[in-house]
Write a structure and sequence with these properties.
20% helix; 6-stranded antiparallel sheet; 4 helices; 9 strands
Length: 125
């Protein structure tokens, strides 16, 4: 399993893209998608919602369980990926591409986000 080097990661298994014009894209990692199993339902925050780093902002339901989706940063949701809502399997088949979850205009970023190498070591432990 390879974690893209350009992304940063949370210990709750979300990834965060580089910030462009104050906005970052968020999704869950391949590690999390594999642990969940086949994702069958996705509940995302709504556009305009404020998410808070470390707090639940949605749900992912798989054939095995229901898991909370946590915000890796604080900010305002500016876009939700309707394709993933319509086809939750994208989370499993392309977690770093078409399976992204939402975009947020960041107002605060915690200092505990991990690099790809740090996340790989964290999940190996």
């Amino acid at each position: 399993m390879s974690n893209p080097q350009q992304l940063r990661y949370s210990k709750e298994h979300e990834w965060l893209s580089a910030v462009e014009d104050g906005v970052a894209t968020i999704g869950i990692t391949e590690h999390a998608a594999n642990a969940l199993g086949d994702v069958v339902f996705v509940q995302l925050p709504e556009v305009g919602d404020t998410v808070t780093a470390g707090e639940s902002c949605g749900e992912l339901e798989s054939t095995k369980s229901v898991s909370d989706l946590y915000a890796p940063v604080t900010g305002e949701v500016v876009e939700a990926n309707q394709d993933v809502v319509d086809d939750p399997s994208l989370v499993n088949t392309a977690p770093f591409e078409a399976g992204w979850l939402f975009k947020v205009r960041i107002s605060d970023e915690p200092g505990d986000l991990l690099s790809a190498d740090e996340y790989t070591a964290f999940t190996a432990g």
